[in-house]
Amino acid sequence: DTEVTQTPKHLVMGMTNKKSLKCEQHMGHRAMYWYKQKAKKPPELMFVYSYEKLSINESVPSRFSPECPNSSLLNLHLHALQPEDSALYLCASSSGTLIPPEQYFGPGTRLTVT
Amino acid sequence: AQSVTQLGSHVSVSEGALVLLRCNYSSSVPPYLFWYVQYPNQGLQLLLKYTSAATLVKGINGFEAEFKKSETSFHLTKPSAHMSDAAEYFCAVSDLRLGNEKLTFGTGTRLTIIP
Predict the structure, then answer these.
(1) Which of A65, A64, A58 has the alpha carbon at shortest distance from A84?
(2) Using a CB-CB distance cutoff of 8 angstroms, which residues of chain A are in contact with residue B94?
(3) pLDDT tens-digit profile of A7-58?
(4) N or C of chain B: less Cβ packing under 10 Å?
(5) A102 and B46: CB-CB below 8 Å?
(6) Taking CB atoms and an 8 Å limit, are A43 and B105 in contact across chains?
């Protein structure tokens, strides 16, 4: 199973809402990532978890809060977002040990902030 | 810092023609380089990766790329384009720092196939 799953596929939320994005992988990977992708742009790294610990935060605003409950799950909690946060949010995972690294991406959650 | 530059934000080729997508890298050390493809409303799929084991790398769907150190390039090619190849293609470089993997993507090239 080389699949990374993400739920929901689409999410519309108001600026005062609290919502969460979920990512799951069952490949035994030890590194998981959140990316943000605006239309017609490349993905931009937001967070990296390595062995369930946050290892990289690319200066992401605190209205985005990542969580890694276990080695298979990655959540992104959203609160008080702005319309400019509307984007495709991609999750990825990698073994954490393979050189060079290979990241497997999920299909993404299309987020619209109204 | 490592980076990649993709020349040409849009490339159009006729079905059956050669596909050439350009990527140049900037790195002070031998880089790990990748090509990813993104179909509309989907995530990214790894096409191929450069591991330094061979300069010519073969990937999925008939794509290949050649690493040329003298030209700092890693261009993606396919001898004969199919309609199904229409997608966005991203070149990426990996930065391994303290065991953390950070992928930095180029700006992408949208490939259109003309019937």
Answers:
(1) A64
(2) 100-101
(3) 999 999 999 999 999 999 999 999 999 999 999 899 999 999 989 999 989 9
(4) C
(5) yes
(6) yes
A interface toward B at CB cutoff 8 Å? 4, 6, 31, 40-43, 45, 48, 50, 55-56, 90, 92, 94, 96, 99-108, 110
pLDDT tens, position by position, B24-65: 998 777 788 999 999 988 899 999 999 777 889 999 999 999
Secondary structure of residue B30 in the 3-state scheme? coil
Examine the pLDDT at B98 and tell me if it is beyond 60.
Answer: no
Q: Per the CB < 8 Å rule, is A103 touching B101?
A: yes
What average pLDDT score do residues B73-97 get? 92
Residues 6 or more apart in contact with residue B83 via CB below 8 angstroms: B15, B113, B115
CA distance B64 to B66: 7
B66 neighbors B57 (Cβ within 8 angstroms): yes
Q: Quick one: DSSP state of residue A51?
A: T
From A85, A88, A51, select the one nearest A70 (Cα to Cα). Answer: A51
Cβ–Cβ gap A42/B102 under 8 Å = no
